[in-house]
Amino acid sequence: LMELTDADRVNLRDPRKTIGRASVHLSPESFSYFLPGHKGDRFFEGNTVIIAQRLDGLDPHALFKRYLSSRDRRFPYDPALFLTARGAVPTRTWFLRRLRKLFPNTIAGHSLRAGGATYFASEGWPDDRIQ
Fold first, then answer.
1. Superkingdom of this entry's organism (predicted)?
2. Is residue 102 classed as helix, strand or coil in its secondary structure?
3. What is the pLDDT of residue 111?
4. Is the model's pTM score more than 0.90?
């Protein structure tokens, strides 16, 4: 979760870890962005996150394109990719409050990571691709 949000405490925020809008690449069947740093990346080498289009059920590709269009219309000059309606990089608390409006309290920030890993493992993806 911290890869997509700012720390709640201002003194813990690191702008080197903010995902940049300019790193986004869209194709007809996927989108990607560059994750500049995370807790397992001490030297800030970064990783590219690729999310594929889904034709069955909820399509993250279509949702992301709608978000990107809205974000670019409202905040065309802000370098951060993920922004709140007020134009700020979302904080961990901001995200968790919204998560709790959609899901029961048993779902937390790490539930998304664990659930995603479990899903892709059940789909037969190799471990190195899930990571």
1. Eukaryota
2. helix
3. 64
4. no
